[in-house]
């Protein structure tokens, strides 16, 4: 599928967002990252109203997380909500979070990986040595998903259920590709995330690229989960009011504010698609595996994603991702061997 910028904005004005889908989540554990503001916060509130066994909101900041926690409890009446701290710009934080989860929690039914950032005018490098947008949106998001995967698979088998992993992507993936200079390089992720010249050249479309990488990750993971009762998908919430653009250069930020005033949906409206990807579509679950969800329905990803070129890029990037994540956390290799198929 090809989607132009005018088509996106026209759809923002004319498409009707379906009402939030509802389900009884009694006994189930739900985890939402980036849940103190925006889409993650609104999605967490929707889940809180569905009687979850436990709802964990993962946030980077204690004070903001506490405020979100109290707001969710007050607005929904749900007392089974917990705040866990998670900083995706720090691999150590991701590993500690996953270790704690493995030690304390017996099940994980829904994981919504919503946390993400947009780069500013200059690239920022994390303490781990990676460009921050790539680390937060992709490396740490993928690391967390894989570290929690054994608990999701165990949940499926123990409780006879079908857990879901939802990665928040975007329609901006339609407007980018990953070039051969990356795919054919000796170390694709290092070039993409550590080479200063490459980062500077591609910074303006950095966010677009990270959302494309989210889709590649979900599709690659789904292909290797053959036979396991786990649904992995990505979701496009649409163009919504949020704090996501706060790091943009001032001139772009001004244009973004104007565009939001004219075209943007509310964060609550956008969150409905996150919730649908996590609990909707039961009438045909098979269509949800590896799917790209938009407006609370399975949609078609970009022509590039679906092409032979895109499939090759997806496989190359998956293999190199696992290599890099194994350096970050050696347990990843055993998780892959125990739970996934080539």
Automatic annotation (TrEMBL):
GO molecular function terms attached to this record: oxidoreductase activity
Coiled-coil spans in chain: none
Keywords: Oxidoreductase
Family annotation (Gene3D superfamilies): NAD(P)-binding Rossmann-like Domain
PANTHER family listed in its UniProt record: PHOSPHATIDYLINOSITOL-GLYCAN BIOSYNTHESIS CLASS F PROTEIN (PTHR43157:SF31), PHOSPHATIDYLINOSITOL-GLYCAN BIOSYNTHESIS CLASS F PROTEIN-RELATED (PTHR43157)
Pfam families referenced in this protein's UniProt entry, alphabetically: adh_short (PF00106)
Protein name stated in the entry: NAD(P)-binding protein
InterPro entries listed in its UniProt record: NAD(P)-bd_dom_sf, SDR_fam
């Amino acid at each position: 599928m090809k989607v132009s910028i005018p088509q996106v904005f026209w759809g923002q004005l004319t498409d009707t967002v379906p009402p939030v889908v509802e389900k009884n989540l009694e006994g189930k554990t739900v985890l939402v990252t980036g849940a103190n503001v925006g889409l993650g916060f609104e999605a967490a509130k929707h889940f809180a109203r569905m009687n979850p066994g436990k709802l964990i909101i993962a946030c980077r900041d204690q004070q903001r997380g506490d405020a979100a926690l109290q707001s969710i409890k007050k607005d929904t009446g749900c007392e089974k909500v917990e705040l866990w701290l998670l900083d995706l710009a720090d691999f150590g934080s991701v590993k500690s979070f996953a270790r704690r989860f493995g030690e304390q929690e017996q099940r994980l039914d829904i994981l919504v990986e919503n946390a993400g950032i947009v780069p500013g005018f200059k690239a920022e490098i994390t303490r781990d040595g990676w460009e921050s947008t790539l680390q937060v949106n992709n490396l740490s998001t993928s690391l967390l998903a894989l570290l929690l995967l054994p608990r999701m698979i165990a949940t499926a088998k123990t409780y006879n259920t079908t857990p879901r992993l939802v990665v928040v992507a975007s329609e901006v993936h339609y407007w980018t590709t990953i070039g051969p200079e990356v795919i054919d390089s000796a170390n694709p992720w290092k070039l993409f995330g550590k080479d200063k010249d490459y980062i500077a050249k591609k910074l303006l479309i950095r966010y677009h690229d990270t959302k494309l990488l989210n889709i590649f990750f979900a599709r690659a993971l789904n292909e290797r989960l053959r036979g396991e009762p786990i649904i992995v998908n990505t979701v496009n919430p649409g163009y919504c009011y949020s704090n996501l653009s706060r790091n943009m250069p001032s001139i772009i930020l001004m244009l973004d504010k104007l565009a939001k005033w004219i075209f943007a949906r509310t964060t609550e409206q956008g969150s409905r698609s996150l919730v649908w990807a996590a609990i909707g579509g039961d009438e045909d679950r098979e269509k949800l595996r590896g799917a790209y969800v938009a407006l609370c329905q399975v949609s078609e990803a970009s022509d590039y994603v679906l092409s032979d070129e895109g499939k090759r890029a997806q496989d190359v990037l998956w293999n190199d991702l696992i290599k890099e994540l194994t350096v970050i956390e050696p347990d990843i290799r055993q998780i892959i061997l125990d739970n996934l198929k080539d």
